[in-house]
């Protein structure tokens, strides 16, 4: 039976913060237990070097992984609250413009839809 291939992802491996330390601990623990961890991050740094020294493969391009993993452990998530906040910020000028020029917009719609 071959070892389970586990892909571990993280936003970056540049420093020694919480999620980076967790990725290091998880990958080295899996390796000690006979699994095959592979770490992916688009931004590499000293933490990636530390993992490579511990014989854990680290890639910054998913195409570099020869065969698909059996399990993917993904760190982080999309922060929808920030995306929604940015969307609202971009919509505010459009909404203000509409209310300021509402009469012109309504007249334009009524004139183009009427038959004379």
Keywords:
about 120 residues; 2 domains; four-stranded parallel sheet; two-stranded parallel ribbon; about 50% helix
In short:
The protein is α/β, with parallel strands linked by helices and 116 residues long. It is 48% helix and 17% strand. The longest helix is centred in the last third of the chain and has 21 residues.
Walk me through the topology.
Layout: E1 5-9, E2 12-13, H1 18-32, E3 36-40, E4 43-44, H2 46-53, E5 58-59, E6 71-74, H3 80-100, H4 102-113
Parallel strand pairs: 1-3, 1-6, 2-4, 3-5
Major beta sheet summary: 4 strands, parallel
Give the number of domains.
2
Number of helices: 4
Named CATH topology of the largest domain: Rossmann fold
Provide mean pLDDT, rounded. Answer: 85
The helix/strand order is EEHEEHEEHH
Number of strands: 6
Low-confidence stretches: none
State the shape: elongated
Architecture of the largest domain, according to CATH?
3-Layer(aba) Sandwich
CATH class of the largest domain: Alpha Beta
Cα-based radius of gyration, to the nearest Å: 25 Å
Helix content: 40-55%
* Spatial gap, N to C terminus: 81 Å
Percent of sequence in beta strands: 15-25%
The largest beta-sheet arranges its strands as 5-3-1-6
């Amino acid at each position: 039976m071959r070892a389970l291939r586990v892909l571990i992802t993280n936003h970056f491996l540049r420093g020694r913060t919480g999620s980076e330390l967790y990725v290091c601990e998880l990958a080295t623990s899996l390796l000690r237990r006979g699994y095959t961890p592979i770490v992916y991050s688009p931004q590499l740094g000293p933490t990636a070097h530390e993992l490579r020294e511990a014989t854990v493969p680290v890639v910054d391009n998913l195409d570099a992984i020869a065969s698909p993993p059996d399990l993917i452990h993904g760190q982080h998530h999309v922060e929808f609250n920030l995306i929604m906040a940015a969307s609202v910020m971009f919509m505010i000028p459009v909404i203000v413009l509409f209310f300021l020029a509402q009469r012109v917009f309504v007249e334009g719609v009524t004139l183009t839809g009427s038959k004379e």
